[in-house]
Amino acid sequence: MTEERYSPLHQKHLDAGASFTDFAGWMMPVRYSSDLAEHHAVRTAAGLFDLSHMGEILVLGPEASDALDYALAGKLSAIAIGQAKYSLLLARDGGIVDDLVVYRTGEDRYLVVANASNRAVVAAELLDRCSPFECEVQDESDDIALIAVQGPRALEILLEVPTLRIDNLADLRYYWSRPGTYGGHSVLVARTGYTGEDGFELYIAPEAASDLWDAIVETGAGSGLELAGLASRDTLRLEAGMPLYGHELGLTTFPVQAGLGRVVALKKEGDFVGRSAVEAGPPEGARVLVGLRAAGKRAGRADYPLFDSADVAASEIGIVTSGALSPTLGHPIAMAYVDPAFTAADTEIFIDVRGTRVPASVTALPFYKREAN
Amino acid sequence: MADKSTLQYTAEHEWVLVDGDVATVGITAYAADKLGDVVFVDLPDVGVSVVGGKVVGEIESTKSVGELFAPVDGEVVESNQAVVDAPELVNTDPFGDGWLIKVRFESLPALMTFAEYSTLVGE
Lengths: 373, 123
Fold this sequence. Notes:
- The complex is a heterodimer of chains A (373) and B (123).
- With 373 residues, chain A is of the alpha+beta class.
- Chain A is 20% helix and 33% strand.
- Among the domains of chain A are: 5-52 and 144-239, Probable tRNA modification gtpase trme, domain 1 (Gyrase A, domain 2); 55-140, Aminomethyltransferase beta-barrel domains (Alpha-Beta Plaits, 2-Layer Sandwich).
- Chain A has helices at residues 10-15, 35-44, 64-71, 119-130, 154-160, 206-220, 230-239, 275-280, and strands spanning 5-6, 19-23, 26-31, 46-50, 55-60, 84-90, 96-106, 109-114, 136-139, 145-150, 164-165, 177-182, 185-190, 199-204, 225-227, 288-294, 305-307, 316-325, 332-338, 348-353, 356-363.
- Chain A has a seven-stranded mixed β-sheet with strand order 11-12-13-14-10-4-15.
- Chain A is globular and about 65 Å long.
- The model of chain A has no long low-confidence stretch (mean pLDDT 96).
- Chain B has helices spanning 29-35, 81-85, 89-92, 114-120; strands at residues 8-9, 14-19, 22-27, 38-42, 49-50, 55-61, 65-69, 74-79, 101-104.
- In chain B, the strands form two sheets. In chain B, strands 1-2-3-9-8-5 form a six-stranded antiparallel β-sheet. In chain B, strands 4-6-7 form a three-stranded antiparallel β-sheet.
- In chain B, 41% of the residues are buried.
- Chain B has a single domain (4-106), classed as CATH 2.40.50.100.
- Chain B is built from four helices and nine strands.
- Chains A and B meet through helix 2 and helix 7 of A and strand 4 and strand 6 of B.
């Protein structure tokens, strides 16, 4: 294994008394004081996250659009400058190498944001897949810090951060980004996130990240902003029904199984990696991702098996991929892969919670949806 | 809240307060911090016989599940309903109101001192 890596904001986390967790080789804050308080702060006010472990890979050049249309499952040539798109990097056999957010930042310029755990493989695959095209692939991850401000009060806080200048930030639409400045530094501000709330992600040079972090903390203090760690990020994204690579997504998952069929642009002209496999589809009877909700307080967790009855002789019909007692809803929720016969809403199934069969019912994702503004 | 320096400890990050033949058991602040916010506690019923070193309950946080081990052989004489109703007590007062069970025992095994436990968790 490589040595532990630290965010450019590591000293800020130490100063704030964070507990740390190893995430893909990075020592990142798992919580500052209370993951429940951090979760609720994001739902009701705002939370500040350090996501500097994420991978940022630039694809630029006259054929960058064509290259990404071939390399990724979506039609990236179709998005406007400033627009962002959730996409997938597929294996030739249709499995998912990573899920990504792609920002088009210029006519011939895209920023591909990968999961920290997949940064190296995504960079290598993009380099390989884009090589026939007139474009360059540059892994900029070490030169970009990422700070997210998420929650209903995120906008009002960012509008007041001194020397943060982004034109018409209030008008920035969901899944769009806009360049701006913070002090003398360039910053890319995107209205994206992984919490189910309104919010922003700010890409900035590592040497400016600490100042920006402090400025947001100071500005947000009166608005209920809390520092938020990866534990709350996980429960927030779970409530929002968003998949996490390594849990809901992986090399043996076809997009359609994860409910991501819409992300694969089968209508786009030309070939793309994974196309023929996705067109052929997963094997007959492949499991499908569903939401589960249960009563009580005992949550099904990743890798807990699912059964079609409480009977000990019942057959296994699926497996939990993520689960928690929902902080917002107050009851257990989970995402799980189940056999196709068990995907209808309100289907009753049983989670084996460490030897106890806990009844649960299939429910539509997401579990939580914020009220429209 | 109990005086941490006078408690005894287990390698499973539990503390034990001995009063006569009854041991009050809880998890340490170190263990509570590692778990994160506790949201569900499952404790054994009063009257249940427990065996030292065996799992008798569960302490769940949003992120993970911790097991409660009986530190001694004996019989459960009380389980803390306050903590069942308000699991956050495990985080807010692990050495006090966040206690978990009381066990009547006949003999006490060797447990760690505060100094030994502090060394174990590197504090």
